[in-house]
Amino acid sequence: MKNLKNLKITFNSPVILVFSLICLVALLIGGLTGGAATQIFFSTYRYSLASPLTYLRFFTHIFGHSGWEHFFGNITYILLLGPMLEEKYGSKMLIQVMVITAFATGLVNFILFPKVMLCGASCVVFAFILMTSFTEFKAGQIPVTFLLIALIFIGGQIIQAIFVKDDIANLSHIIGGIIGAVIGYLANRKKI
User: Fold this and answer.
1) CA spacing 20 to 30 A to 86: which of 114, 170, 184, 185?
2) Model confidence at 138, in pLDDT bands (50, 70, 90)?
3) Which residue in 107, 134, 97 sits closest to 16, CA to CA?
């Protein structure tokens, strides 16, 4: 019992914890407004380029989720992988990964899918998954874990995009994975 008194709760991964909290707040606000706030602020879709919200949504769509199941699925991965990545690469790098991933997937969705509304952090999840596979990268080597993860996650998204007709944004997952792989590779190559 004495050892339990000395335990402290720490705010160990500020970017990941704040990101998760923003996603939770966005989900709650979306629920309270019957989904209107999610559509207006936390989803990206083809809309007038004269509207400032169009540009904001290129970035904020990663905070919105269609429901609790969608939220828990993404946030579980974010909370699992994010702290390790934040410790290894730093808060600034993780913010950059999220911003680049959000913008790239938002812009691609805007250009290629005019009738599709995109929301959720799954593009960031895929970026983190592929980025994680480079944590033990060494010069001149390709980690087998990277190859397996790329095959399983990216290959799975390609198969789903071709054969399964659902509303999951497979291309945003693939883009997120590519961004995570490239940044993970470049960040680790610089450290060698």
Assistant:
1) 170
2) low
3) 97
pTM: 0.86
Q: Is the pLDDT of residue 142 over 60?
A: yes
Give dist(CA 89, CA 170) in Å, integer: 27
User: 161: how many CB neighbours lie within 10 A of its CB?
Assistant: 16
Amino acid, res. 66: S
Nearest 5°: phi and psi at 114? -65, -20
Closest by alpha carbon to 179, among 104, 73, 89, 95?
104
Question: What crossing angle do the helices spanning 91-112 and 68-89 adopt, rounded to 10°?
Answer: 140
Backbone angles phi, psi at 115, to 5 degrees: -105, 10
How far apart are the C-alpha atoms of 142 and 184, rounded to whole Å? 12
| Structure tokens given for 42 | 């936390």
Closest CA to 82 of 120, 131, 25: 131
Neighbours of 22 (CB within 10 A): 15
The mean pLDDT value for 42-70 works out to 95
The pLDDT-based confidence of 78 (bands split at 50, 70, 90) is very high
Rg of the chain in Å (alpha carbons) = 18
**Could you state, in order of their start, the residue ranges of all structural domains in the chain?**
12-191
Pairwise CA distance, residues 48 & 33, whole Å: 23
Task: Write down the architecture of domain 12-191 according to CATH.
Answer: Up-down Bundle (1.20)
